[in-house]
Predict the 3D structure of the following.
Amino acid sequence: MTVDFSSMPDDTMTADGFDQAIIGVDSKGEQPVVKYDYNKCVAILVKDNNMSHESAMEWMDFNVVSANVGPGTPVFCYPDCEEDG
């Protein structure tokens, strides 16, 4: 999925290396943010970094999901989430 960033606020952030895991935009909070499929992000880590599934999940949780850097911080959708678009 491609997100039209021209319509997003200037402080919208993305998670580096996970463009193929974008599933839409979450607009339920103060401002719209990029929404990622957590499992697709883990799969990218496993493939691109030769990590085990467990190691990729631990790395994802500690380094990506827990990083709240302001209102434009992306959100990560877990299994059974709905894709936008």
